[in-house]
């Protein structure tokens, strides 16, 4: 619309050329509530992106907002001083932490971004092991700051910024569909690679500090690993006396239909970086829960200014309460399986939709290349069609060929149906 155009034009003149999103979905946002966004021209959109999986309890969730506003009036910035907000959030995180973490964990809050939390885990792992060797996976995304970028796999993110941290190794993530393997076989092979790297004296890898893994790869294309993979990885980490760092930045806080994706696989991370949805309604905060055995830092051993944003912390507490009180984990599982069913029906109409993946409301639909169009171009076309009909969807995947559906967990069944009618129509219209 004309008002969006005006603001986009204004942005184009002053904002960084790196800003990407409005180039694909050219709207300027006026306001957002729950699972809908209204642009400055008064058009409303169903939001199947949730600010990259941040707005799990919905845009401007009133239950969260109320407490955030109250807290903002009292105090906002507190660094590391104790506040009720901070301690309440730590306790709330303890209540939902996966596996055995709640019994013996510690939390360190990071700066506002996921990358900050990842940087903290690199320091934590190095400090505790004395090593500097970092193991991560192909297809991984862990952030854009120097250390996190070193763990990120995609060439497009890092090729212009060499050198990366030394002694970082990327091993294959089990990706049964892409590898054309049975899931068990994919998992076994991936684990064998890690084991060999760590345990074969001739692998050329020395001084390991830790293993970083996404429990379900996000940017890499919503890649759901086979059942035994994470427990197997945990065992290897244990045998080699290094921590397993499970990056729950995109998968946390109910996104996958459990509090954390680790819950699906019965694995207890040694350290678990969190960000995105942790601040409830998009307030910037990150944190890492880690096992008390790793709690060896001296006071001041890892510092940072933005580690006590009380409104974000209150927002986090309220968001956890809201998810629990409204049974949003079960809701995410139900609506998620409805969405996957609809996508599978569309796969029957458009054979280029070759794989439907994910758990809860963390969903990917992969499209294959054809002779005259790549899967990436097709996903862009579908995205554009959806946007024109009032649904915002995003892409993912190493080759950009995965349609990513990660709506707020508060998406109602009616909204899911309305959204999927449009998304499936767009997919089916692009049948070859
Ligand atoms: N880890 C994962 C799994 C992510 O998905 C992201 C962001 N997409 C990050 C880390 C980095 O978070 P941020 O962009 O807040 O630095």
TrEMBL record:
Keywords: Aminotransferase, Pyridoxal phosphate, Transferase. One of its GO terms (molecular function) is transaminase activity. It comes from the Archaea. Its cofactor is pyridoxal 5'-phosphate. The keyword Hydrolase does not apply. InterPro entries: Aminotrans_3, Aminotrans_3_PPA_site, Class-III_PLP-dep_AT, PyrdxlP-dep_Trfase, PyrdxlP-dep_Trfase_major, PyrdxlP-dep_Trfase_small. Belongs to the class-III pyridoxal-phosphate-dependent aminotransferase family. This is Aspartate aminotransferase family protein. The lineage of its organism: Archaea, Methanobacteriati, Methanobacteriota, Stenosarchaea group, Halobacteria.
